[in-house]
């Protein structure tokens, strides 16, 4: 501390009668302050590259949570979204907000005897739901599983043989299961994701703060985050959009499969099911006793993934008959030849 | 610990902090750490990948195309007599490859006299656009599943009150002469951000988790097929 | 009110006063902070793609540092226990440095969470729809901010009273101190519960995470303070007794032993069971499917931990050289095992069995360094200001009328 005491005395001596020293100290301090401000300005200079669409917008700032929006609020927001789509893609968006249907709870069935792992569902979903092509976001991940095991550690996500199915494997597509006890909804700090009455777990993209806690919580790796600005080619944009599902998202927010609510809430089949060539995907209202899914749940050997985690998924896997998977010739007993 | 020196050194020393900050400012403005995007270009996806049309596109009409002409089956088969019920090779329609398991007789399905129709168990006609009545002669359980929607493709609307639901017929997915569903080339796999090298070698040691293939040759159907 | 503003102004002026070593230290920290700010602005422009995080590993270096620092903040206030509950007067003077460290570290924690957000401009959504009590993140928000306010009040009150030249009234700070003790335990427990409550991540879904957090925090925090107190002793007029350092050493001894024991418990449970749930642990310690980027890190951390524990148990660590070395080892080892050894492996393999490794980008590292530098900057200012004020050298009465500050 000796030097500081000495400095006190020298300063006091100097200040007692040295006006030009205070001017010097003023200059020094002024120079230091100026240099500091310049340095901070230089540090934030990359912000000059921030494009206009990423600048804070008063309307977006004041926008309420979806559940609190009045009809007028929604109209205004939809108009803003349509305008953005028009500006960015030169496409007229048809934005809807279909409410959940009464007496409907959706479930999805997947026939593991029939899935051949062609991944057409993956890409149909990408096209329908306006997902980013680069960086690539795909809600559905098809796993090539070893026969005899349901351990997901043995899954191969990157299979690329000449033709599928490989007779030694079975194929299990995984997407959001719209769980009845969803861990993602439990952990969201701002209630940006919630479960609707028809079972679909939705996200308000304009409310999500991008903390990615839900992504860590999901046991099925079903949620995706926009690390960068999503790139959708304008000619591949699907103009039939819903606010809670397939309207174009921005970077910094989460997204996931919504059972194509823009289609299913008006009675149509989801895109992944429409494109499936083998009819492995089954969708419908579980509360309707005459639906396909009710029949499957009653008569087929149904199970769910990771049941022990307690999520109560609305996505069932099942096996029915062995299916036409055998390749060997079946010798005909009376004709004695190959068929 | 040094004593503060004379005022000139003090003066000089007093300016090094602003100098350092200004130097820092200059470096930062020059963008020393530019951002290079790690995003790979989009994987090209062919049109067939998102095409929802069924794999077989049967006409669902009793027609046969020769060169550029469409003939109804009965146009020829009115005149040509039916062969005897022996197992012989086809002299016409030789492009048809019959690989329907133990179903090796044409007239198990086709009506003997009216080729514009199929044959049911009693020998009566089944119209050409009702193939499921034919297939259900032998494939009972699958037919039952198909009726309830558990087998086969259901497209259009799940809610029949809001729109039309299409149930695909058997031969829209299965070639009746070679019904095993045709293997196809898979669509491109995932190529996500910063994925790193991926391949099945990552899980090579868990290739046979339940030790089902310990003795190759004993489990013939899984071990001998590629 | 005027007095309070004068106090703040005096503190502000005081923080620029010091010898050349002080200015050098502060300039270096400022430059690093500015570099971090620059990198963060780049992240704001391009998005979180400037980091190395992916959908597979969606939390990385930011949350790793956040987890470590919450422990540091908790432990800093745990110094309070020996003083106020056990009346260990050796530590009486150093409590304030612990509390100030807690404030600086909590600021760093809040910054780390902010830079991790995808949409930091929407932080006010937290005030409009708050998923309390279901979401543990909301508990964490309350805990961290409450802790910050508590410590700001305690430190601020004590320093302000010293500045005004009047003795602090016990009713305005002693109850808060006791609340801070309980709150310190809770902030780290709540942070642990963030991870523990996720059934889809078996690496985290273990009851031992919360006790391990506390044990490692009570080793790293006092170790940091031992190093800080020696700097305070060397460069300011404040006297720090060796007994204070040795009492902290005792705390660290116990904490490191418990930490090591809990590590052994975890390793046994994972590897003896050898079920499919241990894939993440297998990845961390031995590599999985040929991917083993974290393996050298974790074994270094375990080695350093073991060496540090041994050092602390030996009487040789009573000497300051060995003590300092052991402290550095403990701090770094716990940073590794709590940061990358806890956060990243839970994401590998993904719940669907995919392995995608995580490497932080240069931008990410620079932002982390910037936040650390900012925290050290804030803490240095706190110490720089509090020592003379608490010693009575800087008061409202003897401030210089013309310049407004006197140089102690």
Can I get a quick summary?
The complex is a heterotrimer of chains A (339), B (226) and C (408). By secondary structure, chain A is α+β, with helices and mostly antiparallel strands.
Strand runs of chain A, count = 12
Largest sheet of chain B: 2 strands, antiparallel
Would you tell me the structural class of the helices and strands of chain B? Answer: alpha+beta
**Average pLDDT, all residues of chain A:** 87
Q: Round the Cα radius of gyration of chain A to an integer and report it.
A: 29 Å
Q: How is the main sheet of chain A built?
A: 4 strands, mixed
Please write the string of helix (H) and strand (E) elements of chain A.
Answer: HHHHEEHEEHEEHEEEHHEHEE
Q: Compute the number of structural domains of chain A.
A: 2
Major β-sheet strand ordering of chain B: 1-2
Give your account of this protein's structure.
The complex is a heterotrimer of chains A (339), B (226) and C (408). Chain A has 339 residues and is α+β, with helices and mostly antiparallel strands. Chain A is built from ten helices and twelve strands. With 226 residues, chain B is an alpha+beta fold. Chain B is 20% helix and 9% strand. Chain B has six helices and six strands. A two-stranded antiparallel ribbon of chain B has the order 1-2. A two-stranded antiparallel ribbon of chain B has the order 3-4. A two-stranded antiparallel ribbon of chain B has the order 5-6. With 408 residues, chain C is mostly helical. Chain C has a domain at 2-254 and 360-390: Up-down Bundle (Formate dehydrogenase/DMSO reductase fold), CATH 1.20.1630. Chain C has helices spanning 2-14, 20-46, 61-78, 80-84, 95-116, 125-128, 136-164, 174-196, 209-235, 242-273, 279-286, 295-313, 320-338, 362-390. The mean pLDDT of chain C is 90. Chains in contact: A-B, A-C, B-C. Chains A and B meet through helix 1, helix 2, helix 5, helix 9 and strand 10 of A and helix 1, helix 2, helix 5 and strand 5 of B.
